[in-house]
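Repro:
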Amino acid sequence: MPARSALTPEDFGALYFITGSICARCGGPQTLDLGQDDICAVCHGSKTAWKKVRAALVYDDVSRSPILALKRAGRRDGLQLMATWMAVAGADLLSNADLIVPIPLHYRRLVSRGYNQAGWLATALARQTGKPVRHGALTRTRSTPSQAGRSARERFRNVRGAFRVRRSGKQHITGQRILLVDDVFTTGATANAAARALLAANAAEVSILVLARVAREKDVTI
C-alpha cells in the first residue's frame, strides 16, 4: 500500500506561497509593495555575505509538516514537487547561477541521519533546470549544536566559521556564481556562514534558494 502523503489536499490549498511583494535582498514577503529593487527595513540595517534569498513558501503550521517529513523522516514522495516550487520561486537566481551547492551536514550527522535533505533538493533542482550541482565542494568543519530555540545572535555565533571549501573543490568555486540550496531559511545564520566560506574561496557571488523561510518570529521552531 502506498505511503500516505505528508501533505493532504486540504493542506495543499492552505500553503502560503510567496508570490506577492518581496524584499529584493532577503526575499521576505512584504505587506507593502516595495518595488522591484527595494529592500526591507531589516536588510537596510544589516550586512550579509549572500546577495539574494528566494523561498517558495512561508514556513508556518501548514508547511511545517511536509518539511519535517523530508528533514527528519527522510520522506521523498513530494521531493520533485518541492523542487518545482523552488525553481519557480528562484527562477531569477537559477538563470544567473553557474553552480548549485547544497548546505552540507557535518559528517557525524550525515552518518547518523543517512541523508542530507538539502542535497536531495539540490539534486532535484539540478535535474529540473540542467544546472550543475557540486555536493562535496563545501564542507561543515564542526558539529554545531542545534539552532532550535536560539536567538538570532546566538544562531550566528553558533555557526561562525563552521564551513569551508575543500581544497579539491576550490577549482569548481573560484569565479563562479553560486546558488546555495537549503530546506529552511530562519535567521540566515547558517546561509551566511556558508556564503562566507564560498566567498573566501573566491566565488564571484552567492545567493540562497530554499523551500521555505520563516516570516514571523513565532514560527522559529525548526
